[in-house]
Specification:
heterodimer; A: about 290 residues; mainly alpha; two-stranded antiparallel ribbon; 11 helices; about 75% helix; B: about 290 residues; 12 helices; 2 strands; about 0% strand
Amino acid sequence: MDIIPQLIVNSIIAGAIYTMVALGFNLIYGTVKFFDLGYGALTAVGGYAVFWLYKILGFDLYLSIILGTAMAGIVGFLVYKLVYAPLRSRKSSSMVMLVASLGAFTALQALVAILFTSQFQTLSRAAGAEKVFNLFGGVITETQLVILVLGIAVMLGMAALLKYTLFGKAVKAVGDDEEVAKIVGINTGKVVGWVFVIGSAIAGLAGILVGFDTGIEPTMGLSLLLKGVIAAIIGGIGNVYGGVLGAFFLGFIENFGIWQISGEWKDAIAFAVLIVFLLFRPQGILKR
Amino acid sequence: MEYLIHIAILISIYAILGLALNLVVGFTGLLSITQAAFYGIGAYVTAILLTSTGMNFFMALFVGVVITAVASLAIGFVLSKFKDDYYALGSFGFNIIIYSVFLNWQSLTRGPLGIPGIARPTLFGFTFSDNISFLLLAIIFAITVYLICSYITKSSFGRVLKAIREDEEAIKVFGYHTLWYKLAVFVIGAALAAVAGGLFASYITFIDPSTFTLTESIFILAIIILGGLANNKGAVLGAVALIILPEILRFVGFPSDIAAQMRQVTYGVILILLMLYRPQGLVGEYRL
């Protein structure tokens, strides 16, 4: 097995996961203009919902995934309703929102740990016995192939949703100027609520897929969230295609980076990339 | 009794961390979430010097403070390019990078194994080996830090910091080189955190990277936001409240792993409630 093709395959898979996280994050940030860090904990919510339904209650695989994704969406919506909506109606600064979302993140993550213990779990029932495909000399598992396909599907779905539907136009309008959007008759509260549902559901889906690929633990959200945020920022925050570009860029840099130095440095590499971007190209690869 | 002394020592250490962070977040308005990194550098340098060279504690602590100051100067310089929520995000990144260094620079820090057998401080032949005498030492340090902080905040230097927080452009027009002020206060805040780190290392006599995570930085931030930003008494008050509060949970009778998670839930919910109902904290003079 050659190392380069495998690295490329790994980078693409990482890129697909980061794409999902970045897309959901971007959707929320683009609409409400603050860093929603609580978003990270929703990956664990999705992952553990599936763990509970699929492995403990013995539900059907696809049904569990759909319900798990929905569960993340609902929890995200509740956090919005209980925390962000009152703060937004008070016109709180983005720093207040950031601190509140830190609180939501810490509390949600710990709640998941209380319900399911902090132990590392894997979602897949047939761990280690998965079908494996060869791709240009690199190895890719069935799960990873699904991740790739879903990543692309979410990207295309999001692009279509924002571009061709009335809802997408409303989202853009709210993101551009909420007051004006209200004046022309858009129910902004409803639109923002749905943005949180959709964004959170995507985060949940990403968490579920990570759970099938490697595994879940309550603290998984932070690392995924940060990768998503970094991908969104280096791609050009608020820009859908930029987020995708940033995600794959990050996936490649990380995986080729740990080829040269040890794997534990992954997070540090990702942040070093972010800081370099913020210093030299703060608007990201693609401007909004 | 031994237990109460332990709590009092922890309060002294976190009061130092809170006071130091308050200079940066409360008085200067820079939302830094990387205090645990400097706390950690101070702890590691002190611990390494104590275990490998047998140097006197106070000498080792001094070296720890100097090294932390140099590191924070570099980090502060990079961060000074950012504003508001990007500043917070960048500081996040440095916490994760420094944590990775503790975890991965194994030849120096022994990585996840941590450093055991750190000696208690010795002064003129007297060893602070029992906890009562250590508490005395910790309180003396805390009071000294408190006096330093109240001197700084009452001085003309402190007034410039507040001016930067309120309107950086305006104070620039008056000819103040704001970059130097921001760097200076950042370095002071980090150096004082390193003092707390050294104290912590020699008190527990063991350190490992898990103490200096992002969660710890969020905890220190919660201390000053609860106590009140831009108020030195508030930082101490916050440390007292947030150290004692979770101890009550312990007496309610939760098992220890759940109690640890309940603490996180408590911090998270406190942050959210404060942002919703009292963003200036208990006695704060500035709101985010």
